[in-house]
Amino acid sequence: MRRNLFVTLFVLMMSLNLTHTGIAQNSSFEFWPETDIWYKLTPSWRLSAFIPITKYNESKYRDLNIYLQVDFAWGKTKRIALRRLVDENRVQQMKSWLVRGGFMEGWSLGENAGTYTEDMLFAEIHKRVPLKGGVLLSNRFRTDLRWVGNDANFSYRFRYRIMLEKELTAGRSSIIPYVNAEPYWDSRYSTVNRIRLIGGTTVAWGPRLAYEANITYQYDSHYDTANLYAFNFILHVYFETARAKTRAESYEQPGYDQPSKSE
């Protein structure tokens, strides 16, 4: 199963890239810096803020987007999944389900201010399935409710993302390479108009920081520049309450029913 998933994602990425290799004049190349701030309230509840500088198809210029969101995780996986979480640098058992909701506001920067504006409400649900060999399969379904432009034109999107990742640890360091694919269905066109493919790595750097870098390819059939290539660099900053820290530390005490790290 794991091999088939890797092959499917690889073939999808290669086929889309080969299809559009010869259309350089219909391509754009972007650099997307981003800062993500995480604040864990309890082992299940977490607040976060994402601050990317990116380029959306509704705008030809650099835009700033701010996401404010809350998520809740619960449930146990059938196969034990341990993760040296980069926000804590501690080994813990991963929960199988996660729901997230939030709000995003975006606008264009500098001399292009006012060219692009967007307000968005979104909700998503994640299902995480550990596979053999320490590989984690994640499925995410997301709905976006969007008000774009000065006239606040309403539209909505459905998005499904499938991701494979595997954590590699050395001492207190954690490295997580991953690949994912995500189609978008847009109500403005009543079709799947966008496909996004990403491959990257997240590296823990101490108990409070992690760095992530990835290469993104995006194909959009309803935009003048159909092929988008981007290098995305993300700084993750992690905080937690005393309650969340105490619960995490109690998990590591001798006598606690901690799963084997070798699984």
Characterise the protein shown here.
By secondary structure, the chain is mostly beta strands. The chain has one domain: Porin, CATH 2.40.160. It is 11% helix and 61% strand. It is built from two helices and 14 strands; from the N terminus they run H-E-E-E-E-E-E-E-E-E-E-E-E-E-E-H. The protein has helices spanning 2-19, 242-251, and strands at 27-40, 45-54, 63-76, 82-85, 90-93, 95-108, 117-130, 135-148, 153-166, 168-170, 173-186, 191-205, 209-220, 227-240. The strands form two sheets. It has an eleven-stranded mixed barrel with strand order 1-2-3-6-7-8-9-11-12-13-14. A two-stranded antiparallel ribbon has the order 4-5. The protein starts with a helix and ends in a 12-residue tail after the last helix.
Task: Write a brief structural summary.
With 263 residues, the chain is mainly beta. The chain has 2 helices and 14 strands, in the order αββββββββββββββα. 13% of the residues are buried.
Please name the CATH topology.
Answer: Porin
How big a fraction of the residues is strand? over 45%
Low-confidence stretches: 11-23, 250-263
Structural domains: how many: 1
List the main descriptive attributes of the protein structure presented here.
263 residues, mainly beta, Porin, two-stranded antiparallel sheet
Write the layout of secondary structure elements.
Blueprint: H1 2-19, E1 27-40, E2 45-54, E3 63-76, E4 82-85, E5 90-93, E6 95-108, E7 117-130, E8 135-148, E9 153-166, E10 168-170, E11 173-186, E12 191-205, E13 209-220, E14 227-240, H2 242-251
Parallel strand pairs: 1-14
Antiparallel strand pairs: 1-2, 2-3, 3-6, 4-5, 6-7, 7-8, 8-9, 9-11, 10-11, 11-12, 12-13, 13-14
